[in-house]
Amino acid sequence: MNLSNGQTFSSTTSTITVNEPGTYSYTITTNNKTYEASQSSGSFTVNGSSVSKVVTFTSNPVVKKTSISGISSIELYAIISALLAVVTIGLGVTLLKREK
After folding, report:
1. Alpha-carbon span 63 to 78, nearest angstrom
2. CA separation for the pair 30, 41 (Å, rounded)
3. Of 6, 26, 77, 79, which is most buried by a Cβ count within 10 Å?
């Protein structure tokens, strides 16, 4: 969680505690791109009592793991694109050699 005052918090549990009184804007990020936050930004005010914000993480529909290889669809697209680029370059080189 990144706060508007520049503080950054991370957690592997469901709780992050901010004790300093004030009003904060926040953004939620994750290193695991397979999931995305249900509410990735918002604000809250700390004024002496606890404040709870519920943020759930759901499966990111863009980054699904394929059942065959266990790689994400984005990784699969990148691999296919790279292979197509190599094949295209190879064909271009072959055609240029034939012309000589």
Report:
1. 12
2. 13
3. 26
